[in-house]
Amino acid sequence: MAGGWDRERLVALDKAHLLHPHVKLADHEATGGAVIVEADGAVLRDADGKEYIDGLAGLWLANAGYSREEIARAAYEQMKTLSYATLFWGWSNPPAIELAARVAELTPAGLNHVYFTSGGSEANETSLKLARLYHYARGKPEKTAFIAFRRAYHGLTYGAMSATGLENLWQGYGELLPGFGRIDPPYGYRCAHGKDRCDASCADALEAEILRIGPEKVAAFIAEPVMGVGGVIVPPPGYYERVRAICDKYDVLWIADEVICGFGRLGTWFGVQHWNAVADLMSVAKGITSGYAPLGASILHDRVYEGLKAGGVTLTHGLTYSGHPVACAVGLKNLEIMEREGLVERSARLGRYLLEKLRTLDHPNIGEVRGVGLMAAVELVADRATRALPEPVTIGFDVQNRARAAGVIVRGLVPGNIVAMSPPLVVTEAQIHRMVEVVGDAVAAAFKAAEGA
Ligand SMILES: Cc1ncc(COP(=O)(O)O)c(C=O)c1O
Description:
Blueprint (H helix, E strand, L loop, with lengths): L6 H11 L7 H7 L4 E5 L2 E4 L4 E4 L2 H4 L8 H13 L12 H13 L4 E7 L2 H18 L7 E5 L8 H6 L16 E4 L20 H10 L4 E6 L15 H11 L3 E5 L23 E4 L11 E6 H9 L14 H16 L2 H16 L7 E7 L2 E6 L14 H11 L2 E2 L1 E3 L4 E4 L7 H24 L1
Parallel strand pairs: 3-13, 5-6, 5-7, 7-8, 8-9
Antiparallel strand pairs: 1-2, 2-3, 4-10, 9-10, 11-12, 12-15, 14-15
The protein binds pyridoxal-5'-phosphate.
């Protein structure tokens, strides 16, 4: 027992009853996992008392840091006052109203209408469905197809999974939903169009795909402003301006999946603010509550809302927990703290520091360091000149495991040669310094072990 926690009992019950995503069932039964019992700031503690700097902010979300009394109090007060209320049939509640208004204030101009969900997949389901409904309401019911990036991650419910472009996540679930076209993401380090110097012309692939499907059939293009799970892929300047123009030309809606990027991760309130273009719909989640309560939203631009309204639409898309008063009260408090403590500016400042530090790691197998705000990655290669994939390509998972043993959480991304970081926005310079040191050592040790294998 450490800190009063009976680790052995917890692990036994966990193995017997709790299902975990993204780990082989048999492996988990054999080894079990660390049981995290408490956290604060950017540090997690497990049942053995071991501490970790959480270089991933949970799943890219603990923006305001862990276990704040103030947010706990907001949840408590709300639960005591009104623990649940529905938004169906026009009923409403103060936290949902106030949070929708606050979100509308923070989002780029025109994004003013908020549909709350319980997370990111549901936010994307909602954005996809409302994009179709918009065209239907305007007398274009045949506009139902979507276009997404290869490697994109939009969640794993059926619609979101069908938009997701990571093939390993499709296996075993039969047919995806029909009607999803795919284009290559603007992955400058491995340009699908063979360019040495990025000129953002890869955005034209979107136009080609719209024309291939037929503009009269395409409802929307969905994309993460900076791709997270797919490799921390940062589009070049000008990219989304071009996307905007192409979408306008063919009456195609642009859905920005801001589930990771939104609420400060990239050093701006929203990821798209790194480009001079405004999306038609934005999906958000994660950072809206910093993970203190499950909450997401699909945010509609005025023109989408007006189109739906003019078409006489009733939103026959209802979710029991939409506008949950406790989740919304938590979201309000979280945003208040983020603003009061200047966490968005801090993300921009410490993000520069993180990239600077990562770039001092002079290891021949680090091909590229990239990122924006407090979202960064190192891409591992066999050789810097050729950019060939390392052997084995899964070496990033070894880096992840070695870092974890040293008390730092980072994440290897499929296929395994990219190591991602996205710490809480309250992370300190000293913690970043330690994180980078551990990642550097883990990369060196992993390649040394691979050579010896
Ligand atoms: C960009 C993006 N969209 C959607 C999702 C899905 O969110 P959730 O897991 O809350 O359903 C995620 C989750 O990581 C994500 O990174």
